[in-house]
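ARCHIVE CARD
CATEGORY: sequence design from structure
SOURCE FIELD: tokenized fold
FIELD CONTENT:
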């Protein structure tokens, strides 16, 4: 397959942006122009170039809006938003770049809202969901206009589309939420602790037991539309949860709630410790876990390795922010909390009673499907075959990249036709 960058990380993240072209998050020539000016594994050139493309797209959006071309304006605002999101993505040092990252992320959100108000065929409601005392989670509820949902009689089935470990809810609209709305589903996205603006600005660490976060969302929805007769017209008896990558792990945890009627987990991890195993030498990691290597030595070696590998540098920095830990040893140790495992008689997946669709990516940068997706499917032994389905893709065009990057259209076809089948 053609490569845009030598490094796997930059190449994957560029394709991730390029993949959103299908749903309005990218213009091919704009992306290729950006790629030509980005230095491989250089965070500053990545940030500067995507920021430049964002400003150009924003100017076009405003021009189109002034001329009454709201369709072009909406699309350009979405591109400007996505490029602004991309411009902060590689800025790995959250402590040094905090103010800059927040500014870019807030700009991305503002541009997205401007684009969403101009959309045709979709009505967008901006919501704030109570979480903990004094903390609210930003959310969007997307409703299809009746012309797009003729096959759905009555109220709209609802999909809760979860963010993952490094995505924003605005990006999730371009990945899968819009595809759901165009098929007649109502779709809710939100940013929880450890995600998006709540991570970058509020510094809220991620919660391994994400089912508690989704439970708060479900409680909010029940209060928002107790009888299904509110302006939103959503069917609370048909709520599904969809997630990609770490968001798929969250989806599986959320699926234990009896209010979830179906779960789609696209390329989930079984255990986040697998990231540590894949990034560090086996002897070094086992020596540290056994106590032969001190935390000080561990932090020093990880720091040295990070200087030699930008991807590792970015991942360690993101883990520090995501977990709220102060050093690499604490962040790596915190990964062990993100697991679906347990004793044979108390496995988390045993709690899931609803139908589950799980996929794996044979060319993933992060998770080996034999240790994640296939293991998850095998542990859903209590579900009969009609209630569970496994899809493993090898080649990129067939969904072989993590989170189905490069194949969003194919993934959404699989996701939403499977969800529709659950209503039959």
């Amino acid at each position: 397959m053609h490569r845009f960058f030598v490094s796997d990380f930059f190449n994957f993240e560029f394709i991730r942006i390029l993949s959103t072209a299908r749903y309005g998050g990218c213009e091919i020539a704009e992306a290729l122009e950006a790629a030509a000016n980005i230095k491989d594994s250089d965070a500053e050139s990545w940030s500067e170039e995507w920021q430049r493309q964002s400003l150009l797209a924003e100017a076009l959006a405003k021009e189109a809006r002034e001329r009454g071309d709201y369709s072009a304006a909406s699309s350009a605002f979405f591109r400007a938003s996505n490029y602004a999101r991309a411009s902060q993505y590689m800025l790995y040092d959250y402590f040094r770049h905090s103010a800059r990252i927040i500014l870019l992320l807030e700009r991305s959100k503002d541009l997205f809202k401007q684009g969403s108000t101009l959309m045709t065929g979709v009505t967008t409601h901006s919501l704030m969901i109570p979480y903990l005392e004094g903390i609210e989670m930003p959310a969007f509820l997307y409703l299809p206009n009746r012309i797009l949902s003729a096959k759905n009689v009555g109220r709209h089935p609802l999909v809760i589309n979860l963010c993952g470990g490094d995505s924003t809810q605005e990006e999730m609209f371009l990945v899968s939420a819009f595809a759901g709305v165009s098929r007649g589903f109502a779709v809710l996205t939100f940013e929880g602790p450890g995600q998006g603006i709540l991570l970058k600005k509020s510094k809220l660490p991620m919660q391994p037991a994400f089912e508690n976060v989704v439970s708060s969302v479900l409680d909010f929805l029940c209060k928002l539309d107790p009888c299904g007769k509110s302006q939103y017209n959503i069917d609370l008896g048909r709520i599904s949860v969809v997630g990609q990558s770490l968001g798929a792990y969250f989806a599986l945890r959320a699926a234990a709630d009896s209010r979830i009627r179906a779960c789609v987990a696209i390329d989930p991890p079984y255990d986040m410790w697998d990231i540590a195993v894949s990034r560090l030498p086996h002897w070094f990691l086992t020596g540290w876990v056994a106590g032969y290597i001190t935390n000080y030595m561990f932090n020093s070696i990880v720091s040295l390795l990070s200087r030699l590998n930008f991807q590792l540098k970015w991942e360690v920095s993101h883990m520090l922010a995501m977990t709220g830990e102060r050093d690499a040893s604490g962040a790596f140790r915190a990964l062990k909390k993100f697991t679906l495992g347990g004793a044979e008689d108390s496995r988390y997946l045993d709690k899931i009673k609803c139908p589950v669709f799980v996929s794996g990516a044979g060319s993933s940068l992060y998770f080996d499907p034999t240790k994640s997706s296939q293991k998850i499917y095998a542990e859903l032994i209590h579900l009969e075959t009609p209630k569970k389905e496994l899809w493993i893709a090898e080649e990129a065009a067939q969904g072989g990249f993590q989170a189905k990057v490069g194949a969003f259209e194919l993934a959404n076809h699989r996701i939403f036709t499977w969800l529709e089948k659950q209503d039959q």
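CARD ANNOTATION: Residues 1-120 form a domain with the de novo design (two linked rop proteins) fold (CATH 1.20.1440.110). The chain has 16 helices and eight strands.
SHELF: design records, drawer C
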